[in-house]
């Protein structure tokens, strides 16, 4: 199975200050894809966020904090509710661990578990292992419709991905993403991410809310809200250790 999956979650590696100054000319497909690709990437970032999970059977909410350096290092820790406080996930390059404080156990996530749900949400462990560059991994075509740019992505020959294709819809005025649609190998939409509530954090303007809906599961969605974001945080790669993963704060 093809395996690279791009996610906007958790990698507060996710945010970079990118300055684009377009002329009156329409930006190229590659320029737009590069902008969106880097919108949620940042060295040395800290975030507080809320995750809401909805299913036909229950609703739950978690508050979390995360630290990251680029795409290689990230650590996320659950703050509330109390019964899940201290549950944490660590990513170091291409390795991942989960810490479960109730049983005081650290579990290394094997490849066979990468498509499993993270904390009961619609995001998978694989979403947290975000790697690579869309510009390098996908062929992209651009079209403009009704005040929007639409990017159609098809993976290159050697790209490993779980998706047959993707589509990214961008507002022409703000150049910020509105929606991302994931398609299977038959071209059917499988899930979609909707971006909303644009805010400015530490000088960076971006959608602060991301709602992921699996289109094959009625009544399911996961919403992530960035409550606070800081950049240029003084942390190094030595912060992202299994020992630090196990600490409550």
From TrEMBL:
The keyword Lipoprotein applies. The keyword Ribonucleoprotein does not apply. Coiled coil: none annotated. InterPro entries: LolA/LolB/LppX, TP_0789-like. Pfam families: LolA_like. CDD domains: LolA_like (cd16329). Keywords: Lipoprotein, Protein transport, Signal, Transport. It comes from the Bacteria. Residues 71-247 form the Uncharacterized protein TP-0789 domain. Monomer. This is Outer membrane lipoprotein-sorting protein. It comes from Reinekea marina.
């Amino acid at each position: 199975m093809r395996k690279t999956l791009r996610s906007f979650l958790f990698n507060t590696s996710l945010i970079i200050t990118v300055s684009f100054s377009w002329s009156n000319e329409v930006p190229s497909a590659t320029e737009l894809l590069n902008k969106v690709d880097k919108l949620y990437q940042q060295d040395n970032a800290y975030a507080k966020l809320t995750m809401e999970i909805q299913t036909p059977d229950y609703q739950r909410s978690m508050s979390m904090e995360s630290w990251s350096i680029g795409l290689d290092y990230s650590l996320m820790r659950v703050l509330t509710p109390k019964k899940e406080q201290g549950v944490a996930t660590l990513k170091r390059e291409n390795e991942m661990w989960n810490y479960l404080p109730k049983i005081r156990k650290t579990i290394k996530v094997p490849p066979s578990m990468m498509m499993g749900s993270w904390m009961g949400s619609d995001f998978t462990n694989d979403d947290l292992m975000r790697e690579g560059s869309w510009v390098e991994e996908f062929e992209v075509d651009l079209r403009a419709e009704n005040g929007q740019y639409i990017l159609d992505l098809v993976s290159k020959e050697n790209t490993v991905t779980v998706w047959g294709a993707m589509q990214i819809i961008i507002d022409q005025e703000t150049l910020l993403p509105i929606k991302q649609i994931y398609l299977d190998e038959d071209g059917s939409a499988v899930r979609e991410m909707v971006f909303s509530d644009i805010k400015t954090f530490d000088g960076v303007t971006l959608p602060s809310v991301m709602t992921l809906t699996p289109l094959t599961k009625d009544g399911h969605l996961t919403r992530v809200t960035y409550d606070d974001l800081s950049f240029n945080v003084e942390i190094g790669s030595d912060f992202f250790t299994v020992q630090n993963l196990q600490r409550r704060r």
